[in-house]
Amino acid sequence: MKGFSSIDKEYTASTYKRFDLEIISGKGSILTDSSGKEYIDLGSGIGVTAFGINDEVWKNAVTEQLSKVQHTSNLYYTEPSALLAEALCRKTGFKKVFFSNSGAEANECAIKAARKYGNDTKGEGCYKIVTLVNSFHGRTITTLSATGQDSFHKLFNPLTDGFIHIRANDISALKETLDESVCAVMFEVCQGEGGVIPLEKNFVDEMVKICREKDILLVTDEVQTGNGRTGELYGYMNYGFTPDIVSTAKGLGGGLPIGATLLGDKVKAVFSYGDHGSTFGANPVCCAGALSIINRLDKAFLDEVKAKSEYIFKTLGSLENIESVRGLGLMIGFKAKNKTSAEIVSGCMEKGVLCLTAKDRVRLLPALNIPEATLEKAINVIKEVVEEN
Ligand SMILES: *Cc1c(COP(=O)(O)O)cnc(C)c1O
Questions:
Q1: Would residue 169 be called left, alpha or beta, if left means φ above 0 and alpha means ψ between -120 and 50 degrees?
Q2: pTM of structure
Q3: CB of 208 shorter than 6 A to ligand 1
């Protein structure tokens, strides 16, 4: 041990229960700790390092921009954010993009856009946003309020008013809730922190239909499901509809902090000068890195993501001791019959594989470009851990 973990424990706010693991460096899907031990990384910094650690294409894009200008302000134009906004719109059909620095901020922007739209179209009383029980939308007070998990709420009252939580896949609850005071529904197509739970297709279909009829905005929180993670560019594309607003972050920056809120036709003009802003938002270095990520998420690449996903589903799904495997693309959660997810994570770590958890599941979010052989090696380790007693 280099010993910086003890310094961290002494001086860093105690919000994170870290593993006893000091990460020093890495390459691709391999991380190296302070004792020189190597790990296969199936967590990607929670779905952030989409093309792995120290990826050459991403690093070149970032360092090239770094040697030009690292930051100006949003008073001036810079090329990377212009090109990234264009790429995001061209690839999705969305019309405008607002850049921020995190998932929570991307959601804050989505919430402001939805409220403004409600106010513009239906008046002041139209501000409520329906979200789902067990969702996760971030840690700011407002995105916590949007989050449909009471355990996150209780210590931080008063919360932001105007969020209604309904159960996922409950169409009658949704119908009862959607009145003139509701401007939007916001949801993850596959709940990540909630335990890797994809929404049912017929619930999504019905929700889309009702919201269209009532001119209620559809907002997908694609902070985790976005940017190729599910095998499609954005998670909603698995469901055959297009939302009005998409928020994203995590994998978008490939490891640098960036959030983006995509605004569709209905809301493309909802913001005017001064309505929203961010000092660091649209940072040219982060945008240059993000552009190098987005440009590589073409059909051939996404087909590889899907093939790796199928391999994991098939291999883990066939194991006697695994109760269930669920998820979308390379966002996968599984549960064993004989061990808790914490036991599996620590067993894997000992054998050199890093996995995440989400609720009672082991969660896998490998780099999208993880080499097949590396993935197979890691899955074999999981298999060993799940099969031993
Ligand atoms: C991680 C996450 C967030 C919060 O993102 P931060 O960058 O930590 O603010 C919001 N929504 C979803 C679905 C997430 O997975």
A1: left
A2: 0.98
A3: no
